């Protein structure tokens, strides 16, 4: 049966009817040193503008190489053709290993223990012999051209509200370098990287395709993140955890979507991908109908008749230099580009008129999927800023005269794509466009895509292509790191020392007299262990407030609150005493003596009563007129006369009693 659904209304698409499949990959940084270099894990948050001048810089170009089976990975081959060069900035926590000038060291033991702990929490089965692998990466994010990754465990289970989700694999791997800038030049793209993050341990967890719906994808991501945070040994903050989504529908194919940091956006991102795959399945059959090719089956499991040769004959790499047609262009960008030595090349796409598409929006104001956007994305991977196509022209300063002139040079073809760039780069970009146009007759290509981000957040839930989906040739053994056996004794010890879950921590705090908000904050901010370890019989709410409001030594805070409860220091003196004794280890007597010296020792009850009596007697008419309404105004007067040496609760009680007595 043909798939049913309105592409313009992604929220209404039915996952079950479309054969929806989805799995989640989570990458979580660990709060340890680097995985294979013993360098500290401290990050140096610099931009290209604030980059320290004393950091060394190294320029490299990477190339792909064949794996153990003698094959070159498709993603690596593609990256090499982009002709990019890379500048690596050596942060203080990066050395010879990060620069690929020294062999790696064995695994950081803390990172390995955390990985095994998470495996136990997910009921996964550890691999008895750990073999580090090299995963080819030629996008420049790793100086060596590969990422080291180790399979730790398989076959686990994650419990979610909508049912269990299988855990296929749990790996321990190195994080990549951080991109600082990217510059397009006539010789290719130059990318600058910060090496501070390179080598920080990552736990990668990949689920089975058990996610039932876009909303369940969000639930699963939340549950995975919570499990990792329950270890209390992972990094927190922006960028410390990253989710990738593997999404497909029956008439489409698997696509990996990266950059899903905002969990609230996951359902929309997934639904936009469902709509995109449905749109391109329908577009493929429209193109096939027009050219009398056999239709694609609605299920990718059913083999379709190959039309590869026919499509290659229809769409040829026949590039024409049409720069002369743009002498009368109104575009400043085109004029300046041609003057600088770039050329305008044209690629004819016969039969594509009206199928490339114009920018339109769905009911949720997201861009509707269209072939033109995919063609532009393919061209951008070659390093160009973009392309122009006939369905959207005249526009962008390209007038009708230019359009007609190009058509004439292309023998009046009905559709075409233009690229302005240095000739070598324009040819590479349009070759990429041609390959994507040929794929328009097929299901969507298996590829890695990235969420479109603007101002730090997803723009509308849509994605752009990054690279082909890597294949099996990507992995081969790392010969510089010895294999490691996980003994049954080590695994048993891990299982016997699994950390408490969030629910268990919440239940533990409910045994104290705390508000629900205090309980939630103590657990969320990972302060509950400190609260319990130093509570020492203190009033729970006051101690919780102190822990939540102060970032100080918890033993010191506990002692100062004890001093307050025993009458050695006023409430107002607590913050001053915390500052004074910061970094010290005072006794209760020392705190009391300091409070006495600084005027933060509570006044004796008889002295307070004398002050209260005097204040009330001096304002007796006011007290008789207002009654208990005089409490607020007189409270401030008494506290001022006490000079900070009075306890607020004691003053309030004495003032209430005195006002009641004088009001009788």
Descriptive notes:
The protein is α+β, with helices and mostly antiparallel strands. It has four domains: 28-209, no CATH class; 308-440, 2-Layer Sandwich (Gyrase A, domain 2), CATH 3.30.1360.30; 502-598, no CATH class; 605-663, Arc Repressor Mutant, subunit A. It has 21 helices and 21 strands. The protein starts with 20 loop residues before the first strand and ends with a helix.
Concise structural overview:
The chain has 21 helices and 21 strands.
Topology:
Blueprint: E1 21-29, E2 57-60, H1 74-81, E3 85-89, H2 109-121, E4 125-126, E5 129-130, E6 132-136, E7 146-158, E8 165-174, E9 178-185, E10 188-194, E11 201-207, H3 214-229, E12 241-248, E13 255-258, H4 266-290, H5 308-314, E14 320-321, H6 332-339, E15 343-348, H7 371-380, E16 388-389, H8 400-409, E17 416-421, H9 423-439, E18 447-454, E19 457-468, E20 475-477, E21 484-485, H10 488-496, H11 502-509, H12 516-524, H13 528-533, H14 540-549, H15 554-565, H16 574-580, H17 588-598, H18 605-618, H19 620-626, H20 631-642, H21 648-663
Helix pairs in contact: 3-4, 7-9, 14-15, 18-20, 18-21, 20-21
Query: What is the radius of gyration?
Result: 33 Å
Strand content: 15-25%
Q: On the 0-100 scale, what is the average pLDDT?
A: 91
Instruction: Supply the number of structural domains.
Output: 4
Point out poorly predicted stretches: none
Number of strands: 21
Helix content: 25-40%
Shape: elongated
Ends apart, CA distance between termini:
89 Å
Quickly give the structural class: alpha+beta
The total of helices stands at 21
| Largest sheet descriptor | 11 strands, mixed
């Amino acid at each position: 049966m043909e798939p049913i659904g309105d592409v313009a209304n992604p929220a209404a698409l039915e996952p079950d009817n479309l054969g929806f499949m989805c799995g989640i990959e989570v990458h979580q940084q660990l709060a340890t040193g680097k995985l294979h270099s013993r360098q500290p894990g401290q990050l140096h948050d610099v931009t290209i503008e604030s980059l320290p001048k004393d950091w060394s810089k190294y320029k490299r170009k990477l190339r792909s190489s064949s794996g153990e089976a003698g094959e070159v990975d498709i993603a690596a081959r593609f990256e090499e053709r982009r002709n990019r060069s890379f500048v690596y900035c050596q942060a203080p926590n990066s050395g010879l290993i990060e620069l690929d000038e020294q062999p790696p060291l064995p695994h950081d033991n803390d990172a390995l223990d955390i990985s095994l702990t998470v495996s136990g929490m997910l009921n996964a089965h550890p691999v008895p012999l750990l073999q580090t692998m090299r995963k080819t990466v030629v996008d420049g994010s790793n100086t060596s051209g590969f990422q080291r990754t180790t399979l730790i465990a398989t076959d686990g289970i994650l419990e979610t509200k909508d049912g269990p989700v299988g855990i296929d694999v749990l790996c321990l791997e190195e994080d990549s370098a951080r991109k600082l800038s990217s510059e397009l030049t006539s010789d290719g793209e130059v990318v600058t990287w910060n090496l501070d993050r390179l080598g920080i341990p990552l736990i990668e967890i990949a689920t089975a395709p058990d996610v039932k719906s876009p909303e369940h994808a969000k639930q699963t991501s939340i549950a995975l993140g919570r499990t990792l945070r329950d270890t209390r040994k992972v990094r927190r903050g922006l960028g410390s955890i990253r989710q990738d989504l593997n999404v497909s529908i029956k008439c489409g194919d698997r696509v990996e979507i990266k950059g899903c940091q905002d969990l609230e956006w996951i359902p929309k991102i997934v639904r936009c991908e469902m709509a995109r795959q449905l749109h391109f399945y329908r577009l493929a059959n429209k193109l096939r109908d027009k050219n009398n090719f056999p239709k694609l089956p609605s299920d990718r499991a059913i083999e379709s008749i190959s039309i590869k040769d026919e499509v290659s004959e229809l769409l040829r790499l026949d590039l024409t230099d049409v720069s002369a047609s743009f002498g009368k262009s109104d575009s400043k960008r085109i004029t300046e580009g041609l003057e600088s030595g770039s050329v305008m090349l044209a690629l004819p796409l016969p039969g594509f008129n009206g199928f490339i598409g114009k920018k339109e929006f769905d009911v949720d104001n997201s861009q509707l999927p269209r072939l033109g956007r995919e063609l532009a994305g393919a061209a951008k991977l070659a390093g160009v800023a973009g392309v122009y196509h006939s369905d959207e022209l005249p526009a962008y300063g390209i007038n009708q005269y230019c359009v007609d002139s190009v058509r004439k040079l292309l023998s009046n073809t009905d559709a075409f794509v233009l690229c302005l760039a240095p000739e070598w780069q324009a040819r590479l970009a349009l070759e990429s466009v041609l390959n994507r146009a040929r794929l328009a007759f097929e299901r969507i290509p298996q590829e890695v895509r990235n969420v479109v981000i603007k101002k730090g957040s997803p723009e509308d839930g849509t994605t752009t292509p990054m690279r082909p989906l890597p294949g099996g040739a990507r992995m081969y053994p790392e010969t510089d790191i010895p294999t490691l056996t996980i003994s049954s004794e080590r695994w048993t010890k891990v299982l016997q020392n699994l950390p408490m879950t969030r629910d268990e921590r919440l239940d533990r705090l409910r045994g104290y007299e705390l508000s629900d908000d205090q309980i939630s904050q103590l657990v969320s901010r990972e302060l509950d262990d400190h609260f319990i370890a130093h509570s020492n019989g203190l009033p729970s709410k006051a101690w919780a407030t102190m822990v939540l409001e102060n970032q100080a030594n918890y033993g010191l805070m506990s002692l100062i609150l004890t001093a307050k409860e025993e009458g050695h220091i006023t409430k107002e003196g607590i913050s001053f005493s915390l500052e004074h004794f910061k970094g010290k280890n005072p006794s209760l007597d020392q705190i009391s003596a300091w409070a006495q010296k600084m005027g933060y020792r509570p006044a004796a009850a008889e002295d307070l009563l004398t002050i209260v009596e005097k204040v009330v007697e001096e304002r007796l008419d006011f007290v008789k007129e207002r009654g208990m309404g005089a409490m607020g105004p007189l409270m401030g007067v008494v506290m001022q006369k006490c000079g900070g040496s009075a306890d607020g609760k004691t003053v309030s009680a004495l003032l209430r009693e005195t006002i009641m007595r004088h009001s009788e």
